[in-house]
Amino acid sequence: MSSQKKRNFKIEAFKHRVELDPKYAERTWKVLEHAIHEIYNHNASGLSFEELYRSAYNMVLHKYGEKLYSGLVTTMTWHLKQIAESIEAAQGGLFLEELNRKWVDHNKALQMIRDILMYMDRTYIPSCHKTPVHELGLNLWRDHIIHSGKIQTRLLDTLLELIHRERTGEIINRGLMRNITKMLMDLGPSVYQEDFEKPFLEVSAGFYSGESQQFIECCDCGDYLKKAERRLNEEMERVSQYLDARSEAKITSVVEKEMIANHMQRLVHMENSGLVNMLLDDKYEDLSRMYNLFRRVPDGLSTIRDVMTSHLRETGKQLVTDPERLKDPVDFVQRLLNEKDKHDKIISIAFNNDKTFQNALNSSFEFFINLNNRSPEFISLYVDDKLRKGLNGATEEDVEVVLDKVMMLFRYLQEKDVFEKYYKQHLAKRLLNGKTVSDDAERSMLVKLKTECGYQFTSKLEGMFTDMKTSQDTMQDFYASPFGDIGDGPTLTVQILTTGSWPTQPSPACNLPPEIVNVCEKFKSYYLGTHTGRRLTWQTNMGYADIKATFGKGQKHELNVSTYQMCVLMLFNSADGLTYKEIEQATEIPASDLKRCLQSLALVKGKNVLRKEPMSKDISEDDTFYFNDKFSSKFVKVKIGTVVAQKESEPEKQETRQRVEEDRKPQIEAAIVRIMKSRRVLDHNSIVTEVTKQLQSRFLPNPVVIKKRIESLIEREFLERDKADRKLYRYLA
Amino acid sequence: MHKLGRGNRDKVQQFIAISGTSEKVAVQLLKACDWQLERAFDAFFSQPQIRAVTDSRRLEELYNRYKDPYVDMITVDGISLLCEDLQVDPQDIVMLVISWHMKAAIMCEFSRQEFIGGLQSLGIDSIEKFREKLPALRAELKDEQKFHEIYNFAFSWAKEKGQKSLQLDTAIGMWQLLFAEKHWPFVDYWCQFLQAKHNKAISRDTWSQLLEFVKTMDPQLSNYEEDSAWPYLIDEFVEYLTENGIVPSRK
């Protein structure tokens, strides 16, 4: 094979040029044009699709694409102008229907035309970067129908008018509306947005601004919110019925802004029906509606929360500072609990259990409970009341619920140590007077306090329970021992209290009747014989006694009295009348206690086993007392209570306060030393912050007190000031 | 001297022979100078106080003049006599400066060691020299650093033995004396305030912090800050001044 001889392939042109009739294009187009006319005139049934397709195909093939395309544009434009005229001619309500009908027609025609011109659509249009037939049809429709001067505004006005009529309660043809908006959407998102949505939103804003203004003038808050909610739902329904789904967020935000955000402040503060009234009247539905509506707008929830907080603080403050309320501590705490329950319920039902609302509630309670420095005492008294009366018929779960609620209040207290002090006092009284109804309930409360505040908080309280148990065992052993042979002397029950665990104040023992002294001595020698190195002191101010008494007509009563009262009554075994002075001398009971116990013996109706001369309402030092043999009672057992102030009197309060302050000093010092031991050097403010942090579970230390403690530690050389920077303290090991 | 090594003992004797000082001073100096004779002489001749005190016998005489007849120390009577000799009032602040130099442990008493040691370090061995020295001593109060030391010295000097804090009336007396030098405008208010509101002894911390307070505060107390760790007594004092309209309230 020779390499020089290359064979080149050549494509030769057609030998015979296909001669075209110069009128071919013109003729073919006429056919097609006619077809288009027929299509628009609903006469397409007679047309041959195959023939028309071929004609269009040939035109494109023979480079008459341009002619075909421009012809199409011209023809379609002509038809659309016709259509526009007929639409414009439509009367009133028929306008939209006509528009819709023509639109459907146009779409059908467009479909057919596109099919005929399929080849052009596939080859000529992409290569010449022209608009495809279908899109072209839509664009022409847009330009000649929708944007035609006479139609454009009329269309918009009609649509808005219809929507307005629907808003005012008329029924409109939603299907037609849907078709029309669908048309606008089909013409491209910008057509829908520019030609309809924007003006629609503007008009809506105007509508709702006017309507809300009108509502707010004449409706109360609850009604207004109902209306707003209904409007909001209507708009959402409207969108789902005949608007673009993307419009929903826009139109709802318009309604939210106009109906809610703009009137928020006025609504919550509305007189007689605003948020405060809703809270007061437990209007869960209204509150829930308000919550759900307001959460849609910025700052909505915080507006509700702020108003609620200030309302809570205000009412709480009134509650805790009302002198009337202070008279009954149990009622005081019950009211607090009710208040808490009420708002808990509101938050859970109406406010979706919103965490931020719960926090607001908690901080409000914390704020006002601590405004009254007797809150710790009262809360303890409340528990005392519940645990003392035995929660009549209440089940264990009920007790738990009550105690849990009390613990909630307890958590709000800043001065937990004050509560502890009172709780201890009250518990001691309950235990010693045998008033605890349920050991389980007492223990359960103790466990709660322990989990809340730690072991240290409750160790002494627990010690009290242990003492009670040990005392029982000791008494059993005593009566089993030779010492316990007391013959027909009075039965003695001793409760041995560990010093320090109990809130006992040293009080001088009174003179006990000889019978009692006898048993006491026996017990003492038994006890000290079995426990070496201990010391017993009698707390005669805390005991009680059952004594049998026979009165004038021989009727017998069993009197339940305090130890002091017993001492007084026993004196009357050997005398009929005694002066105050004589009683005081014989018993050596402290004057204030003696007066109280005489008062309850002689002045309480139905329990007056003594008679006083002269008769008067108070005990004076010149009074003389007689055994009242005319005493009668329908009960065999008569309980003579001592007139005791349930809550503390002013001086007692001062004293407790002072004791608390004293108790705090070592705690603060210990905290300072703990901190300084680990940090070695620290500035003043950091110490104050740290100490506060360490102690806040028990109480809120006062910065001035902390400062004084620091100074005291400096003086005792636990700390020193830094030589160079006087704000720094150093720990001296 | 017998505890010293042979070589060192020679040096001490040599030093005494040349300088004419006491054995004690010689040993001290030599020790301080690492037993180098030349350095010790340098030190000796460059320190006038040491050289000045040549006559321990005269110091002894001076001490004996004021000494209490029954105990080996100078007591109140001796101090009164000393003041008389010096022609100063016993209440004069210069007495505090003297006590400071003597490192006296408590007020109105000088032990033998304090008296003699103090005069030695001041280079005084006669009442005339003492009197001449008074203006210089008084001038020391103008020295910031020395005043500071004297102020803090005054606390332990004035307080009663075995107590940690200073009796209020003593403290007030001392403050009036000391701040007369310092010209603190609030000194009278301070004393009034303490008598009215506090009426308890003054702790060392409060004492020393007060001088800091006086030094740092401007006359309107405008640079006072509540949280800058002043003793609470000072905090309360500022409050007292504000309440009584003596300084403008800071709000």
UniProtKB/TrEMBL annotation, chain A:
PROSITE patterns: CULLIN_2. Residues 374-602 form the Cullin family profile domain. The keyword Secreted does not apply. One of its GO terms (molecular function) is ubiquitin protein ligase binding. The keyword Disulfide bond does not apply. Pfam families: Cullin, Cullin_AB, Cullin_Nedd8. InterPro entries: Cullin, Cullin-like_AB, Cullin_homology, Cullin_homology_sf, Cullin_N, Cullin_neddylation_domain, Cullin_repeat-like_dom_sf, WH-like_DNA-bd_sf. Keywords: Isopeptide bond, Ubl conjugation, Ubl conjugation pathway. GO terms for biological process: ubiquitin-dependent protein catabolic process. Belongs to the cullin family. This is Cullin family profile domain-containing protein. It comes from Ananas comosus var. bracteatus.
Automatic annotation (TrEMBL), chain B:
CDD domains: UBA_DCNL (cd14350). SUPFAM superfamilies: UBA-like (SSF46934). GO terms for molecular function: cullin family protein binding; ubiquitin conjugating enzyme binding; ubiquitin-like protein binding. InterPro entries: DCN-prot (IPR014764), DCN1-like_PONY (IPR042460), PONY_dom (IPR005176), UBA-like_sf (IPR009060). Keywords: Ubl conjugation pathway. Transmembrane segments: none annotated. One of its GO terms (cellular component) is ubiquitin ligase complex. Residues 54-242 form the DCUN1 domain. One of its GO terms (biological process) is protein neddylation. It comes from the Eukaryota. Gene3D superfamilies: Cullin, PONY binding domain, DNA helicase RuvA subunit, C-terminal domain, EF-hand. Neddylation of cullins play an essential role in the regulation of SCF-type complexes activity. This is Defective in cullin neddylation protein. It comes from Ananas comosus (Pineapple). The gene is LOC109711927.
